[in-house]
Amino acid sequence: MGAYILRRLLLIIPTLIGIMVVNFTLTQFVPGGPIEQIAAQVQGQGDVFANISGGGNDTGSAVEAQGYEGARGLPPEFIAQLEREFGFDKPPLERFLSMMGNYLTFDFGRSWFRSISVVDLVIEKMPVSITLGLWSTLLAYLISIPLGIRKAVKDGTRFDTWTSGVIIMGYAIPAFLFAVLLMVLFAGGSYWRIFPLRGLTSDNFADLSTWGQIKDYAWHITLPVIASTISSFATLTLLTKNSFLDEINKQYVMTARAKGLTERRVLYAHVFRNAMLIVIAGFPAMFLGVFFGASILIETIFSLDGLGRLGFEAAVQRDYPVIFGTLYVFGLMSLVVGILSDMMYVFVDPRIDFESRAG
């Protein structure tokens, strides 16, 4: 197992470099770079995208002032100064190597459009995203595992049929559409005003008692967490059911029943551990999926200031230090979580040997 983990860790390096190379290259052809953004704001022309027509330009190389649609009329010295400040006076390869060298020491620089370092900015926004990811994952597991086991035991019954219909509907509904539906129904859209419309806490949160803060926090996260859970809940329930059905039909279960064991003991003493292998081992990956996947739309809809919204705003503003810094961290976390998932498999079932399979 040690050699397998070492190979996976070494594989992180070329994989992460490949991710960064692809995304860095793509940004060179995306119109509306940071210099165009600033030039458009200086001239009072609003969003730079309204001033760009035709194909994309190379945002990573030093270009003449007339190359910027939003920079017409601005002094060339001003444009040249912006290029030096952003580092665009250097070739793309040199900028990429310099960036990756800094990233090896987790030096992500400062945001171009916020007076704060990228690390501090991520730390500031992370609690909101962790809240959504953690509570959504826990809620999905608490509901899906018992429901999946029940569906496996009652396979083919009316209970299994109507719950499958509900699960399929939940899987088919996009998270953002379900979030809008929750807002319309329960946040004062057109029907009931039970939950708040935006934010993670109330304005008077600091003045509340400890119990009052807990209730206020739970009151605010209810709708975002439910919206984030809907798709993962459906997937996890069906995964649990199918895992239990596969185990129930195996020979060792028939042997246990033949020995006179009760159905409950057979289910939870013998089937549970084997059936839950794939479900439990997938916890890190599922958390990361909820953490990064649904956070952008959910945070935007409910006006939550988290990492998803930060990434969206950075992409719109072409704030490259924030874009590449968060991409590097999230890519690294995803690769490490993949290794943790494999280790979880071995922890849950020591019979699994990735080393022999790799050989």
Automatic annotation (TrEMBL):
It is found in: Cell membrane. Residues 126-345 form the ABC transmembrane type-1 domain. It holds the Pfam family BPD_transp_1. Its main location: membrane. It is a multi-pass membrane protein. Gene3D superfamilies: MetI-like (1.10.3720.10). Keywords: Cell membrane, Membrane, Transmembrane, Transmembrane helix, Transport. The chain crosses the membrane at residues 9-26, 128-149, 161-187, 217-240, 275-302, 322-348. InterPro entries: MetI-like, MetI-like_sf. Signal peptide: none annotated. Belongs to the binding-protein-dependent transport system permease family. This is Microcin C ABC transporter permease YejB. The lineage of its organism: Bacteria, Pseudomonadati, Pseudomonadota, Alphaproteobacteria, Rhodobacterales.
